Amino acid sequence: MKHFWKWYKENYHLNLLIAVSLFSLQIVHLFWLFTHVILPKIGLGDWFLPFPFLNWLLILVDYTEIPALITTSLIYINEIRSKNKSFKPWLYLFFLNMQWIHLFWITDEFVVETFHFAGLWWWLAIAIDYLEVPVIIDTVKKLVLNIKRGQTNLILEALRDRE
Fold first, then answer.
1. Which of 152, 23, 127 is nearest to 75 (CA)?
2. Which residue positions in the chain have pLDDT lower than 70?
Protein backbone atom coordinates (compact mmCIF):
# COMPACT_ATOMS: atom_id res chain seq x y z
CA MET A 1 0.00 0.00 0.00
CA LYS A 2 2.94 2.30 0.64
CA HIS A 3 3.80 2.33 -3.08
CA PHE A 4 0.20 2.99 -4.04
CA TRP A 5 -0.09 6.03 -1.76
CA LYS A 6 3.26 7.35 -2.97
CA TRP A 7 2.03 7.07 -6.56
CA TYR A 8 -1.34 8.59 -5.58
CA LYS A 9 0.28 11.65 -4.01
CA GLU A 10 2.63 12.11 -6.98
CA ASN A 11 -0.37 12.01 -9.32
CA TYR A 12 -2.87 13.68 -7.00
CA HIS A 13 -3.91 16.39 -9.46
CA LEU A 14 -4.66 13.87 -12.19
CA ASN A 15 -6.48 11.61 -9.72
CA LEU A 16 -8.52 14.60 -8.53
CA LEU A 17 -9.45 15.49 -12.12
CA ILE A 18 -10.56 11.90 -12.82
CA ALA A 19 -12.59 11.71 -9.58
CA VAL A 20 -14.30 15.07 -10.18
CA SER A 21 -15.08 14.16 -13.79
CA LEU A 22 -16.63 10.83 -12.83
CA PHE A 23 -18.45 12.02 -9.74
CA SER A 24 -19.86 15.17 -11.34
CA LEU A 25 -21.73 12.93 -13.78
CA GLN A 26 -23.96 11.99 -10.86
CA ILE A 27 -25.61 15.41 -11.27
CA VAL A 28 -27.37 13.90 -14.31
CA HIS A 29 -28.72 11.09 -12.12
CA LEU A 30 -29.82 13.52 -9.38
CA PHE A 31 -31.61 15.66 -11.98
CA TRP A 32 -33.46 12.59 -13.27
CA LEU A 33 -34.29 11.53 -9.71
CA PHE A 34 -35.73 14.95 -8.90
CA THR A 35 -37.72 15.47 -12.10
CA HIS A 36 -38.88 11.89 -12.76
CA VAL A 37 -39.22 10.40 -9.26
CA ILE A 38 -39.54 13.07 -6.55
CA LEU A 39 -41.77 15.61 -8.32
CA PRO A 40 -44.39 12.98 -9.31
CA LYS A 41 -44.25 11.49 -5.79
CA ILE A 42 -45.22 14.86 -4.26
CA GLY A 43 -47.92 15.45 -6.88
CA LEU A 44 -46.16 17.91 -9.17
CA GLY A 45 -46.06 15.66 -12.24
CA ASP A 46 -43.23 14.15 -14.24
CA TRP A 47 -40.94 16.85 -15.66
CA PHE A 48 -38.46 14.45 -17.20
CA LEU A 49 -38.53 14.26 -20.98
CA PRO A 50 -37.70 10.63 -21.83
CA PHE A 51 -35.91 11.11 -25.13
CA PRO A 52 -34.07 7.90 -26.15
CA PHE A 53 -30.74 9.74 -25.97
CA LEU A 54 -31.41 10.75 -22.36
CA ASN A 55 -32.20 7.15 -21.40
CA TRP A 56 -28.84 6.03 -22.82
CA LEU A 57 -27.10 8.88 -21.01
CA LEU A 58 -28.70 7.82 -17.72
CA ILE A 59 -27.58 4.23 -18.24
CA LEU A 60 -24.00 5.37 -18.94
CA VAL A 61 -24.01 7.60 -15.87
CA ASP A 62 -25.27 4.73 -13.71
CA TYR A 63 -22.30 2.63 -14.82
CA THR A 64 -19.88 5.36 -13.72
CA GLU A 65 -21.14 5.52 -10.13
CA ILE A 66 -18.99 2.71 -8.75
CA PRO A 67 -15.67 4.02 -10.15
CA ALA A 68 -16.77 7.52 -9.07
CA LEU A 69 -17.32 6.34 -5.50
CA ILE A 70 -13.94 4.61 -5.41
CA THR A 71 -11.91 7.47 -6.92
CA THR A 72 -13.63 10.10 -4.81
CA SER A 73 -13.26 8.03 -1.62
CA LEU A 74 -9.52 7.90 -2.31
CA ILE A 75 -9.39 11.71 -2.17
CA TYR A 76 -10.75 11.73 1.37
CA ILE A 77 -8.78 8.67 2.51
CA ASN A 78 -5.66 10.47 1.28
CA GLU A 79 -6.63 13.55 3.32
CA ILE A 80 -7.21 11.43 6.42
CA ARG A 81 -3.87 9.66 5.92
CA SER A 82 -2.12 13.03 5.68
CA LYS A 83 -3.13 13.64 9.30
CA ASN A 84 -5.79 16.18 8.37
CA LYS A 85 -7.32 17.15 11.72
CA SER A 86 -10.60 18.25 10.15
CA PHE A 87 -13.77 16.21 10.60
CA LYS A 88 -14.87 17.04 7.04
CA PRO A 89 -12.94 14.26 5.22
CA TRP A 90 -14.45 11.70 7.60
CA LEU A 91 -17.94 13.12 7.08
CA TYR A 92 -17.64 13.19 3.29
CA LEU A 93 -16.18 9.69 3.25
CA PHE A 94 -19.24 8.59 5.24
CA PHE A 95 -21.60 10.38 2.81
CA LEU A 96 -19.86 8.72 -0.13
CA ASN A 97 -19.95 5.26 1.29
CA MET A 98 -23.62 5.53 2.24
CA GLN A 99 -24.12 5.31 -1.52
CA TRP A 100 -23.25 1.59 -1.36
CA ILE A 101 -26.44 1.05 0.66
CA HIS A 102 -28.35 2.96 -1.98
CA LEU A 103 -26.74 0.98 -4.81
CA PHE A 104 -27.77 -2.32 -3.28
CA TRP A 105 -31.22 -1.04 -2.36
CA ILE A 106 -32.18 -1.88 -5.97
CA THR A 107 -35.67 -0.42 -6.37
CA ASP A 108 -38.49 1.39 -4.71
CA GLU A 109 -40.58 -1.81 -4.96
CA PHE A 110 -38.04 -3.70 -2.84
CA VAL A 111 -38.42 -1.09 -0.11
CA VAL A 112 -42.23 -1.16 -0.31
CA GLU A 113 -42.37 -4.98 -0.14
CA THR A 114 -39.77 -5.29 2.62
CA PHE A 115 -40.61 -2.58 5.15
CA HIS A 116 -43.87 -1.61 6.83
CA PHE A 117 -43.13 2.11 6.75
CA ALA A 118 -42.29 2.15 3.04
CA GLY A 119 -42.87 5.89 2.69
CA LEU A 120 -40.25 6.71 5.29
CA TRP A 121 -37.79 4.18 3.86
CA TRP A 122 -38.37 5.48 0.34
CA TRP A 123 -37.52 9.03 1.40
CA LEU A 124 -34.48 7.74 3.30
CA ALA A 125 -33.22 6.04 0.12
CA ILE A 126 -33.70 9.31 -1.79
CA ALA A 127 -31.93 11.32 0.94
CA ILE A 128 -28.96 8.95 0.83
CA ASP A 129 -28.61 9.62 -2.89
CA TYR A 130 -28.53 13.38 -2.27
CA LEU A 131 -25.67 13.04 0.24
CA GLU A 132 -23.52 13.17 -2.90
CA VAL A 133 -24.22 16.87 -3.40
CA PRO A 134 -21.91 18.34 -0.71
CA VAL A 135 -19.16 15.92 -1.79
CA ILE A 136 -19.52 16.92 -5.44
CA ILE A 137 -19.31 20.60 -4.44
CA ASP A 138 -16.26 19.99 -2.26
CA THR A 139 -14.34 18.03 -4.89
CA VAL A 140 -15.13 20.60 -7.58
CA LYS A 141 -13.84 23.32 -5.19
CA LYS A 142 -10.62 21.33 -4.73
CA LEU A 143 -10.17 21.10 -8.50
CA VAL A 144 -10.90 24.82 -9.00
CA LEU A 145 -8.33 25.69 -6.31
CA ASN A 146 -5.77 23.47 -8.08
CA ILE A 147 -6.50 25.23 -11.36
CA LYS A 148 -6.14 28.67 -9.72
CA ARG A 149 -2.82 27.61 -8.20
CA GLY A 150 -1.59 26.54 -11.64
CA GLN A 151 -1.40 22.91 -10.63
CA THR A 152 -3.29 21.80 -13.73
CA ASN A 153 0.02 22.17 -15.55
CA LEU A 154 1.17 19.21 -13.46
CA ILE A 155 -1.75 17.21 -14.88
CA LEU A 156 -0.81 18.13 -18.44
CA GLU A 157 2.84 17.28 -17.80
CA ALA A 158 1.87 13.92 -16.28
CA LEU A 159 -0.29 13.13 -19.31
CA ARG A 160 2.50 14.16 -21.70
CA ASP A 161 5.02 11.99 -19.83
CA ARG A 162 2.76 8.96 -20.27
CA GLU A 163 2.63 9.36 -24.06
1. 23
2. 49-52, 102-121, 151-163
